[in-house]
Design a protein that fits this description.
Length: 428
């Protein structure tokens, strides 16, 4: 090769490299702008939702009579979804389905889930809020993608941006929120192409919410045990138990909905019957601890105070609430179940109940969502970094031992949890 030929080749390769670099810069700027739009829009909507949820929760706690209005709230929700021709709503599964099948997410899903979740919490249904936030964020992200005429692949990324932004704004965990939306759809295959937009949308929405008065969740761990063989064995046992309970939670959640639809074919009758069960349980137990999300119960569990049966009651009432047609999320109930179960097991095993509650939250969340990276990150943001090795063990053990059960029927497990084998199966 002579010097002239080499010069021409170098010139051609340099031009190609510059074209690639300019393309990457253009793509980066494009997604930063989109992330900014999604972060502000979804962050604003989620902030409004967060304030509404705080207000109705406080109102319910100060006015015990509101629980008796639960049947009327249920009738309102069923009528609202019928009126909007959205009776076959699959909830968060609609959003997850979009991530790997490009199924459309109706824009009306955002205001519907907003209003119906607020009504559910106002009247005392046992449900969370982050699941509702994922639906709102996915719906709004999809709508923004349509508005700016993105293609199907890019629109899927705006859905993930919206999910990250809503989760981050409402719960104040931007690291976990950014990863959750790219991990939850197809476990084993992460959509790294969405990493930049999801990170920036998550951070923007989080800061927007904080500046608008939404307080990020965080919990204080009173005592972290030493890293020694007896403690490690105890914690392994605790995490295995939590993994199995996460499977039970998922099974009861899915089967309760099917059972209620078989027994009560009419949606109005079904939701009224479930309301009476929830009211009866509250009166029988003499407490409203199981109404709403139960953040106050989680905080008490973190201080070492939890009824040994609390996690069982929460599983059943959450399944009845969501299975009957009330709206809300499953994530905070999973924290409630994990915190109360972990606290109970900590007292039984002789481990700090506060730290055990934190491990239980991480384990149940991981087992129910099949998202170990998100579980690890959310433990950092909620509990700090001091127990990092234990949280890492909790996430890994729960992920393996929970099998192929999950909260979301549309979630796909792409690779086996026990072998380096491609399986591509949905959770059950």
């Amino acid at each position: 090769m002579n010097i002239h030929t080499y010069g021409e080749k170098l010139k051609k390769e340099t031009k190609q490299r510059l074209n690639i670099m300019s393309g990457h810069i253009f793509t980066f700027v494009k997604w930063i702008i989109i992330a900014l739009i999604v972060g502000v829009v979804v962050g604003g909507f989620s902030t409004l939702f967060g304030h509404a949820m705080n207000y109705v929760t406080q109102f319910r706690q100060e006015n015990g009579f509101i629980l008796y209005l639960l049947p009327l709230g249920g009738i309102f929700i069923v009528a609202l979804y019928k009126l909007c021709n959205f009776e076959n709503d699959k909830g968060t599964n609609t959003v997850i389905s979009n991530l790997h099948a490009n199924d459309d997410i109706p824009l009306r899903q955002a205001p519907l889930i907003f209003l119906s979740t607020v009504v559910t919490h106002l009247c005392g249904g046992s449900a969370g809020r982050e699941g509702a936030a994922l639906q709102m964020g996915g719906s709004l992200g999809n709508g923004i993608g349509k508005l700016i005429r993105l293609d199907e692949n890019d629109k899927r990324m705006t859905v993930m941006c919206g999910m990250s932004a809503a989760f981050s704004a409402l719960f104040g965990t931007p690291m976990a929120a950014a990863i959750f939306s790219i991990e939850v759809g197809s476990v084993g295959i992460m959509y790294y192409s969405a990493l930049v937009p999801c990170v920036f949308a998550s951070v923007i929405a989080s800061r927007f919410a904080v500046n608008m008065g939404i307080r990020p969740e965080s919990f204080h761990i009173e005592l972290i045990p030493e890293m020694n063989v007896p403690n490690v064995l105890k914690i392994m046992a605790l995490c295995i138990i939590c993994a199995f309970v996460s499977c039970i939670f998922c099974i009861i959640l899915h089967e309760m909905g099917k059972l209620l639809r078989v027994v009560f074919k009419n949606g109005y009758v079904r939701i009224v019957a479930a309301s009476l069960v929830i009211i009866g349980a509250a009166k029988l137990l003499g407490t409203t601890d199981y109404m709403g999300a139960g953040i106050d119960v989680i905080e008490r569990a973190m201080e070492g105070d939890a009824a040994p049966y609390a996690f069982i009651v929460k599983i059943i009432l959450t399944a009845v609430t969501l299975g009957a047609g009330f709206k809300g999320g499953e994530i905070v109930p999973s924290f409630f179940i994990g915190a109360t179960l972990g606290c109970t097991l900590g007292n039984l095993f002789g481990i700090s109940p506060s730290f055990s509650a934190a491990l239980g939250m991480t384990s149940i969340f991981c087992g129910a969502t099949n998202c170990p990276l998100t579980s690890l990150l959310i433990s950092f943001e909620l509990f700090g970094y001091k127990g990092v090795l234990f949280f890492m063990m909790a996430a890994s053990i729960s992920f393996m031992m929970s099998g192929y059960y999950g909260l979301y029927a549309e979630q796909k497990i792409m690779y086996s949890k026990t072998k380096t084998q491609y399986i591509n199966k949905t959770t059950h």
